[in-house]
Amino acid sequence: MAARGNHSRRGSGGGAAAIKIILLLCVVLVMVAAGSTLFSGRESPVAESAAPVTPTPPAEPVDNLVTSPDTQPSAPALTPNAEPSPHPSADAPRPPAGTAAAVGADIAVPASGAVDDGYFADAVFVGNSRTQGLQMYGGVTGTTFWTKVGLTVSSAATDRFVVLNNQWLTVSEALAQASYNKVYIMLGMNELGWVYESVYKDDYGKLIDVIQSTHPDATIYVQSIIPVSHWKETSDSDNGTYTNANVIRLQTVLVELCKEKGVNYVNVAEVMQDTDGCLFPEATQDGTHLTAEYCKIWMDYLRTHTVQ
């Protein structure tokens, strides 16, 4: 009996040892698996720290890019087969008869050697929004400009828009206080709808009288009215006001006035019109006002048409 008891205890102890070995193997397997997970976890931060890739935005369409300082409304585009007008030059041939430039061509200041901008340092320019364009884009510096949108030969004598000596003055009042050796005038676009061209001539004459009385030694340059584009004069939006027929009508009495007053007539229109007498289509975006390029052409014309 005693022998059986001892055998039983030995068998029970062997089973416990086997269980311990199995448990130990399980622990080892768990540790191996955990070590593998920890190892792979040390690699993941490297991938997360990589800089994110930013997608490249699509290129902006060319049509949306700003290519010109001009902000004037656009006129209808030229037809695809239209040829660009030849670049005007100071020695252009005589303008076609019946056009704005043909009026007064016989008395106009002829082409001369180009002067530098110093010539205009003692000059004053009087005009409407077209002359404002010349001031902004013509490229001349150190010159005085008295301009106002909508200015006419009548309102030049009544509207106080000239700032001089800390005062708001009319053109006539300013001329009485200032001193200039040259006076350039361009007025007429806002008067195209006037019924009586004689009123235009009389009021323009009064302005010239003031200049001659306040500046008896100054050189006076009366500039021709620049024509309007074909699109402008054939549109119905202005009730037939802005037409080249009206330009010629006022230009005719303006030339007569220059002859009577003995002042210089500068035929700017001859480098602004096509063979039909219309303002070059590429010279304007609204049919009346000039683009920056043509304001420079205008100023170049004045530089090469002076009284020597």
TrEMBL record:
The residue ranges of the SGNH hydrolase-type esterase domain are 129-293
Q: Which UniProt keywords apply?
A: Membrane, Transmembrane, Transmembrane helix
- The annotated regions of Low complexity compositional bias extend over 44-53
Residue ranges crossing the lipid bilayer per the database entry: 21-39
What are the start and end residues of every segment in region (Disordered)? 43-101
Gene3D superfamilies for this protein: SGNH hydrolase
Q: Return the InterPro entries for the record.
A: SGNH_hydro, SGNH_hydro_sf
Stretches with biased composition (Polar residues): 65-74
Q: What is this protein called?
A: SGNH hydrolase-type esterase domain-containing protein
